[in-house]
Design brief:
Helix content: over 70%
Radius of gyration: 24 Å
Distance between the termini: 21 Å
Largest sheet: 2 strands, antiparallel
Strand order of the largest sheet: 1-2
Strand content: under 5%
Shape: globular
Number of domains: 2
């Protein structure tokens, strides 16, 4: 295998390691959030989300922005055989990221009170306090993750992600359940808990707030264990850079030059992550404030739309906006599922593209970009079609019979809309990573700032319309990512001459995805009318079985359609494990191009 082939293989090889890990993390996350939502309900989920969304801008810098900077520098130097510079990069970035972690944790503690007051959810302060220390441990992890990613070793990142998620799952569920159980016992015996007299269901807000904080403490403990793993892993197993490689390497660049290089990449990368996640933070603040205004000024209209759900959940008027936001936040687990998994393609492409640019191999850049885009569309389009076709059945399958059951009718239309826009949401992140790899980390920051301005305007106007309310946030999000993609791709094409194969990247996957969605919708409607057994107020019934079977039917239809339409490309198949054997079989039946 040629050096070029080996490097390109690492794009999907490294991506597969991260995809498996990310998929496992998402499964763990579902196992965490689905029962968690059942435990703390949409109100508790609203407190949870309020804290999580102020945390994510800082988290993104430490876990997305900073590792990209380290990875880019390490991969560029490794491609040129400058291993002394590779080592030096780690020595410089660790104390820098450690300091940032301490500052980030302190900033989150200080911002807690003003933030929760500004979103009209003061009880969320317990959750903000509980998650603040995780910033420090995230920064420690980010140093080693970026370092190993730059060396094309995705296993430390993958394993630390799984450890982090398991910690969140175990401690989060146990602690939140313990709080709810303790509260029920105290209320039954004394009529009060956490200093609050409980006379009606509406008085239990403090219980759900403390339970949400307990759940989010699990997130912090997960980062502690993830950080411990990365530190010990480096001390025990090292990094694969041998003494011979160091001896044959030129002398390291002056430290000040390395610092300048880190700053040159890290600052715009961090700004990109910050802008994106500050946008999400603004979303949290604006959505809740606009919803609060809409509820107060148009109470009858909102009750006319969501009255059954609000009444069933016994939500007091002053908590309706938090309840609606909690139902909306439930859909984000699904909205973020595919983009998070496919983000690994961009991460794994960074060392390949960065190394290719260092050697001025733009043909490899073009091949790698097309592989990333095509793979992204092959996954994102059918997943989005499935969410659009089966939004309510999926939510009912997962949340029927739980505390969150009353929020299903609110969340389903939102999830369906996000399904339609899944490809746009998914493509943005890999495209950002590609620009960072070619040394244009400044471009995504500009695109995000532009998109953010449009998003704020769309959100303010659309959410403020009572008949649209929470769904306005979906349209604002979609337009935001659309602007970013157009701007970023224009610069990428100008800088590298990259040309996307529209037929195999967009047209054929889109046709197959439409057939996939139609199969899901049709089979569910047919099966749900036939399978009528079980208690329809619970999870295990004919509708839930119909949903599961319909997902299977959609997968089969999609697989057949991409084969018959020759959507798959031979060069991509060859990069997979056992790729040569798979390609021969598909070629025999003329199913690939």
């Amino acid at each position: 295998m040629t050096d070029k082939s080996a490097k390109k293989q690492n794009v999907l090889g490294g991506a597969m390691v991260l995809v498996v890990a990310t998929a496992l993390v998402k499964v763990i996350g579902a196992v965490y959030k689905i029962p968690l939502t059942g435990i703390i309900g949409s109100l508790g989920r609203g407190y949870f989300a309020s804290a999580y969304n102020i945390y994510t801008p800082i988290y993104a810098i430490s876990m997305a922005g900073l590792p990209v900077a380290v990875s880019t520098i390490v991969s560029r130097n490794a491609a040129l055989g400058k291993y002394r510079d590779v080592k030096q990069a780690l020595k410089i970035t660790f104390p820098l990221f450690l300091a940032l972690g301490i500052v980030g944790t302190g900033a989150l503690f200080l911002a807690a009170k003003p933030y929760v007051d500004s979103v009209g959810s003061p009880l969320a302060i317990y959750s903000v306090f509980a998650i603040s220390p995780s910033i420090l441990f995230c920064c420690i992890m980010s140093t080693y993750r970026g370092y190993y990613e730059g060396l094309n070793n995705m296993y430390p990142t993958a394993i630390s992600q799984v450890i982090e998620s398991l910690g969140k799952l175990i401690f989060g569920l146990v602690l939140s359940y313990a709080v709810i159980n303790y509260a029920e016992v105290q209320i039954a015996s004394t009529g009060e808990v956490f200093g609050q007299v409980i006379e009606t269901e509406g008085d239990k807000a403090i219980v759900y707030a403390i339970a949400a904080a307990a759940a989010i403490l699990g997130v912090t403990l997960g980062t502690v264990f993830g950080a411990i793993y990365t530190v010990l892993r480096h001390k025990i197993k090292k990094d694969g850079v041998t003494k011979e490689m160091l001896v044959n390497s030129p002398l390291a660049s002056p430290k000040k030059d390395t610092v300048k290089e880190i700053v040159a990449i890290a600052v715009p990368t961090a700004i990109s992550s910050l802008v994106l996640n500050v946008t999400n933070f603004i979303d949290t603040w604006m959505i809740q404030n606009r919803l609060e205004s809409v509820v107060q000024e148009n109470y009858d209209v909102i009750m006319g739309i969501y009255g059954d759900s609000i009444t069933a959940a016994n939500i007091a008027k002053e908590n309706i906006h938090t309840f609606l936001y909690g139902a909306y936040d439930t859909t984000l687990d699904f909205r973020n599922l595919i983009p998070t998994i496919m983000m690994t393609l961009g991460v794994s492409a960074i060392p390949i593209i960065s190394g290719a640019v260092a050697k001025k191999d733009y043909k490899l850049v073009n091949e790698t970009v097309n592989t990333v885009f095509r793979t992204t569309m092959l996954i994102a389009l059918p997943a989005g079609a499935g969410f659009f076709a089966l939004s309510e059945p999926i939510l009912t399958l997962l949340y029927n019979g739980t505390e969150n059951q009353s929020g299903i009718a609110i969340a389903a239309p939102v999830l369906a809309l996000y399904g339609l826009m899944m490809a746009i949401l998914t493509l943005s992140s890999p495209l950002t990573n590609i620009l960072q790899a070619i040394g244009r980390a400044d471009v995504p920051a500009k695109a995000l700032a532009l998109g953010c301005a449009f998003k704020i305007g769309f959100n303010y106007l659309l959410i403020g319309i009572p008949e649209i309310n929470i769904k306005g946030a979906v349209f604002g999000t979609a337009f935001f990512y659309f602007v970013c993609i157009i701007y970023n791709y224009a610069v990428l094409r100008k800088e590298t001459g990259v040309r996307i194969d529209i037929k195999t990247v967009i047209v054929k996957p889109l046709i197959s995805a439409v057939l996939c969605g139609a199969a899901a919708w049709g089979s569910y409607r047919l099966l749900s009318s036939v399978l009528t057994f079980g208690d329809m107020s619970g999870r295990l019934n004919g509708n839930s079985l119909a949903c599961i079977i319909s997902i299977g039917v959609a997968v089969v239809v999609y697989a057949i359609s991409i084969l018959l339409s020759k959507t798959l490309v031979k060069n991509d198949i060859l990069l997979l494990p056992k790729g040569e054997k798979i390609a021969k079989i598909l070629e025999k039946y003329k199913l690939i191009v």
